[in-house]
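On to our target:
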Amino acid sequence: MRISKAFFSITFFLILISNYSSGQKIEKIEVDKFTNEKKILTDNVTIYGSAMALYPNVIKCYYRSVDTSAFIIFDGLNTAAGVIGEHDQVIFLLADKSTVYITSTGLQSYEIVGSSSVYRYHHQYSISQNSLQKLSSQPITSIRFYYDSKYHDVDIKEKRSKEFQKLSQLFYNELKK
């Protein structure tokens, strides 16, 4: 059993490295030829955790938009994995102690990877331009994720907070154009 866990860990780590690289850039901008809606997609940034552990705890996020509607997507492993309802929120605590609230776009779940205790999720939240502007103007210090009728607080390291803020600024500026 130990060999299979070690093999799984190495394989999973390699997959994470290839799929979870970070950056602060716009990945795609396009205009739908049928609807004339502008679509923006950013690259993702790691805001929490490490893929180096036997059971990795990672939270990545990126932004996307369809015309004037903006969304933030959290892709994660283990940390904050759970079922979120359509009214569940994520709260960002900013450096000045103010908060930004975003709301789930609907009922969303998670999946168990293989036969292990690794939980993977892909959760999408609506974000207003005002909230996006606040996230662009200050670093975040902590995030509270609500799921399964409970919450989980995640403290964000300064380096990752700056990367997230830069991504937020980039997306906000592109969205305003």
